[in-house]
Design a protein that fits this description.
This protein is an alpha/beta fold. It is built from 8 helices and 8 strands; from the N terminus they run E-H-E-H-E-H-E-H-E-E-H-E-H-E-H-H. Helix 2 runs parallel beside helix 3 and helix 3 packs parallel to helix 4. Bound molecules: D-xylitol-5-phosphate and zinc ion (ZN). D-xylitol-5-phosphate binds next to strand 2, strand 8 and helix 7.
Length: about 210
């Protein structure tokens, strides 16, 4: 059974509580919280105070995806705000130190790769990583098209001996979900395809059947 993690980036920003409750009610496994700094990616989203408010209203397992040039500066604030996992990019500053800091705060540590960054870049830090998040689009915006060639990295990670979870993020929908899971991905991040769906519960059932 694959897991589904809806990305709040695609929800109505004025009704994030309703969006989180929809994910809870439809049986989603966790929630994906995209954080951007206008520098690592050309966009801005949410800060820790938004997560704190949301997590108080809707207790859930929040996976915080930090698309920040300097993630270490915000790890503690997001941990205190209610994150269950924090994911940082291998291309960002102080990557290994950030992973250690996340684990040190008792959270799951995730490592994300831009589409053009090879899996082998994680080799020396594999023991610090609980989950790898493969970006299947260039990070920064929702609603883009999945880059299928990225999925080969799932097999490469297993060949490198990585035994943790592999997630994919960007452009995943009901039509390509099975291709993503067949490639070895166990956690599907879905923004547009979940929050834009007429039948969100049906999307969850479809993913859980994979
Ligand atoms: C993109 C974000 C993704 C995005 C996914 O930078 O990291 O989480 O919201 O949205 P969709 O599913 O619409 O591509
Ligand atoms: Zn994301």
């Amino acid at each position: 059974m694959a897991k589904i993690s809806p990305s709040l980036l695609a929800a109505d920003p004025a009704c994030l509580g309703d969006a989180a409750r929809l994910a809870l009610r439809t049986g989603c496994d966790e929630l994906h919280f995209d954080v951007m700094d206008g520098r690592f990616v050309p966009n801005l989203t949410f800060g820790p105070h938004i997560l704190r408010g949301l997590a108080r209203q809707v207790p859930f397992w929040y996976d915080v995806h930090l698309m920040l040039q300097r993630p270490l500066a915000f790890v503690e604030a997001f941990a205190q705000a209610g994150a269950g996992a924090i994911t940082v990019h291998a291309e960002a500053e102080a990557f290994a130190q950030s992973l250690r800091a996340i684990r040190g705060l008792g959270l799951k540590a995730g490592a994300s790769l831009r589409p053009g960054t090879p899996a082998r870049c994680l080799l020396e830090n594999l023991p610090l990583i609980d989950r790898v998040l493969l970006m299947t689009v260039e990070p920064g915006f929702g609603g883009q098209k999945l880059m299928p060639q990225v999925l080969d990295k799932a097999r490469a990670l297993r060949e490198m001996g990585f035994a943790g979870e592999i997630a994919a993020d960007g452009g995943i929908n009901a039509l390509n979900a099975s291709e993503v899971v067949k490639a070895g991905v166990g956690v599907l991040i879905m923004g547009t395809a979940f929050f834009g769906a007429q039948d969100a519960a049906g999307v969850v059932r479809l993913v859980h059947a994979l």
